[in-house]
Design a protein that fits this description.
Muramoyl-pentapeptide Carboxypeptidase, domain 1, 21 strands, L,D-transpeptidase catalytic domain-like, alpha+beta, 43% helix, three-stranded antiparallel sheet
């Protein structure tokens, strides 16, 4: 069998050689011919091999590692800078730490981690006027704020400059621009290949060094900027918190509730301060109901009830200090209309006090004067000058002398010179009356000892009084509650006023508790037991034709003594004796015009059994100083106020009220909507004409403040007191039912 690859015939050798020659010739011609369609790659002789990038890549990796480390440190700058600075802020350390922990140690007053210039301007503007409130500017750090803000702006400008320098280099040299991009965006894993693709090489080593130097400066500038902003932001917060302390939280002048260690106030009120900086998170009535321990179906849950949140000053949930710091700060000022007028008075009297240093007004002799209309003498001139200094006396036209210039005297200027005459006329008498009216003196127009004493008071003292008055308004419970409608009793003013929507609707004179030192043998206490207490409550009802249920202390110390000289005293004055089931004896006076409570009583339940009422002793209201009761408040024109409250509340018609009154039977009429009432103590006020009023410090609470003797002690243990020892008497006050 033949082999598979064996040929069938073998060709002639010459013929085969000719075939091979022709075939090779064809191939040679074909290979040398350019057909124009060849796809074979070719390597030009002028293309240089790639430049080395190893050194550049190594340097970039080294510098990138260092820059990454520096950038990584920026992340912790906020916490480090905040924590370090907060430690320098004394008692504010606790509230500041709590707040920054709450927001993750980021700036509070910042937009995209840059200073909110609007907030900074709002705060510094507010602090520039802080002295107008009678507040010591030393409690604030306005100068330091401005210094820090200046430093922040300088560092920010430096940061912008370095960033701009890099951008300019990138635009001027695209090669450097690629290096900047690599160092900013991060190096790829195949760095060498990326460098070759970007046509970068070891020739750019010098550029890397320059770029890294600038980027390092930029990172350091950013670090400095964050540190400066952290300090500025924390100090802005500290000052904002100080505003909240001064305007809403701390009591410095309250006779009984003043904070003993004022320097500890930021620490003491830390929780409230933090919560007040986030008004949107303040609890609402709904929140309180939700925390009552019931689920959505009303079924009580087994879990422990949520603890009630402590009370907070009234703040609008729409006021966000981060969004509108100017509005937030303005909202802290008392909404009491008298506050603005008092601020203006303080400014005016500070001017007078400064003038008095350079040109003191005349002092009047401290003795009784017989001056009256028609009197003449040098004392009259002194009195006029003194009243003129404070703006109470306006000189007559005759008391001004004019210089007359001749027509040919061009250098002459007409002037007016004051030449007060020495006659006590009706104009001067009117000025004296006006002064007496605003200084709680008998307005008889006579130069009494009391009037002279008041006129000789220094204007520096008047400034202190006005500053204290503004402080008392800020500490007022009204400032905390901010009701739309309320009654306010100012004890030293002997007046109650009804306010609605920041306008005074009506006011009435009142008689308040006397300032006598009295003894209660049963309780073994001695003190100023009849002083009208400061408190807040709510008017809930009006009692028409009330009985007067005589307190046991008054029965023993007053009424029973009348029985010694007048055995039928009870019968004459329509008192009846009643005995309880336990045998305890009580006395009450029957309704009527001669009843000690008169025809009407206005009830506002409180722990002190104090209320307002009518009185048969109408003459008391003619007196200027009306501290004569046992603690309750006697009211002038009480029927008018009672009817007004009831009709305003739509509880009862005026006709029905008159019918009940004529029946002379005790009847309680409840208000549908109770009205808040605040019993306060402020020796300064403003009259309807906007003039400041300086009142009598009847309970000496202002004196206690100026002497640093707060809180005031009004009651003492009887036995030690008799031995000359003043040991405070403490009693537990319980709320009595209405």
């Amino acid at each position: 069998m033949r082999d598979f690859f064996e040929p069938k015939t073998i060709p002639n050798s010459m013929t085969f050689r000719r075939f091979i020659f022709c075939f090779l010739s064809v191939l040679l011609v074909a290979g040398c011919t350019d057909t124009g369609s060849s796809t074979e790659p070719s390597t030009p002789k002028d293309v240089a091999p790639p430049k080395p990038v190893a050194e550049l890549a190594a340097e970039l990796r080294k510098q990138d590692e260092e820059l990454s480390r520096l950038r990584g440190e920026l992340i912790g700058v906020w916490r480090t800078e905040f924590s370090t600075f907060i430690k320098t802020q004394g008692r504010f350390q606790r509230p500041l730490t709590q707040l920054y922990e709450k927001i993750g140690y980021r700036p509070f007053f910042a937009l995209d981690e840059t200073l909110d210039e609007k907030s900074f301007l709002a705060l510094t503007t507010f602090l520039q006027g802080i002295g107008e409130h009678g507040i010591d500017p030393e409690s604030y750090t306005l100068e330091t704020l401005e210094t820090l803000a200046k430093g922040y702006r300088e560092v920010s400008a430096e940061l912008n400059d370095t960033t701009e320098t890099l951008d300019q280099r990138s635009q001027a040299d695209p090669t450097e621009g690629q290096l900047v991009q690599l160092l900013r965006e991060g190096l790829p894993e195949q760095l060498e290949e990326a460098l070759q693709n970007r046509k970068l090489s070891d020739d750019q080593l010098g550029s890397v060094s320059a770029i890294v130097d600038i980027e390092t400066q930029r990172i350091q500038a950013e670090r400095d900027r964050r540190g400066q902003l952290a300090r500025l932001d924390a100090l802005m917060l500290r000052n904002t918190m100080q505003v909240l302390l001064d305007f809403r939280l701390v009591k410095r002048a309250h006779p009984f509730q003043s904070l003993e260690h004022l320097n500890r106030a930021p620490d003491y009120y830390a929780d409230k301060l933090v919560r007040m900086m986030f008004p949107s998170e303040l609890p609402t009535v709904a929140d309180a109901e939700d925390s009552s321990g019931a689920d959505a179906t009303g079924t009580p849950e087994k879990k422990e009830k949520a603890k009630p949140l402590p009370p907070l000053p009234h703040l609008s949930r729409d006021l966000d200090p981060q969004a509108d710091l100017a509005g937030f700060l303005a909202a802290q000022e008392p909404h009491i209309p008298l506050y603005g007028a008092m601020k203006k008075a303080l400014i005016d009297y500070r001017v007078l006090a400064e003038r008095a240093k350079e040109d003191p007004p005349p002092k009047l002799p401290s003795r009784r004067s017989s001056l009256k209309v028609g009197s003449r003498g040098p004392l009259v001139k002194k009195l006029k000058k003194r009243l003129l200094f404070e703006g109470y006396y306006n000189p007559t036209e005759k008391e001004w002398k004019k210089t007359v210039c001749s027509d040919d005297d061009d250098a002459c200027e007409e002037t007016r010179t004051l030449a007060l005459h020495d006659r006590y006329d009706a104009i001067l008498e009117h000025a004296v009356r006006e002064y007496q009216t605003t200084h709680q003196l008998d307005g008889d127009g006579k130069l009494t000892i009391g009037t002279i004493s008041s006129l000789n008071r220094s204007f520096a003292h008047r400034v202190k009084q006005l500053e204290l008055g503004l402080l008392r308004y800020r500490e007022s419970q009204i400032n905390e509650d901010r009701p739309d409608v309320y009654l306010r009793v100012n004890i030293p003013e002997f007046r109650v006023a009804l306010w609605a929507d920041k306008s005074m609707v009506r006011s009435h004179s009142v008689v308040v508790g006397n300032n006598k030192l009295v003894t209660n043998v049963r309780k073994k206490v001695v003190g100023y037991l009849n002083r009208t207490t400061m408190f807040k409550a709510a008017v809930q009802s009006v009692v028409v034709n009330p009985y007067w249920r005589v307190p046991s202390r008054i029965k023993k110390t007053e009424l029973d003594l009348e029985l010694i000289d007048t055995p039928d005293f009870y019968e004459r004055n329509r008192y009846e004796i009643r005995s309880s089931a336990s045998g305890a004896e009580s006395v009450r006076q029957m309704p009527g015009d001669d009843n000690a409570l008169g025809r009407v009583k206005i009830n506002f339940p409180n722990p002190y059994a104090i209320y307002m009422h009518d009185t048969p002793s109408k003459g008391t209201f003619k007196k200027t100083i009306r501290a004569q009761s046992h603690g309750c408040m006697r009211l002038k024109d009480p029927l008018d106020l009672a009817q007004f409250l009831l009709s305003r509340d739509e509880s009862i018609s005026e006709a029905r009220f008159q019918t009940i009154l004529e029946e002379k039977k005790e009847k309680t009429l409840s208000l549908k909507t109770p009205i808040p009432i605040y019993v306060e103590y402020n020796v300064t006020s403003v009259d309807e004409a906007g003039r400041p009023m300086f009142l009598s410090d009847i309970y000496r609470y202002d004196q206690g403040y100026f002497r640093g003797e707060l809180p005031v002690v009004e009651k003492f243990q009887l036995a030690p007191y008799k031995q000359g020892k003043k040991i405070p008497f403490e009693e537990i006050v319980q709320v009595r039912p209405p």
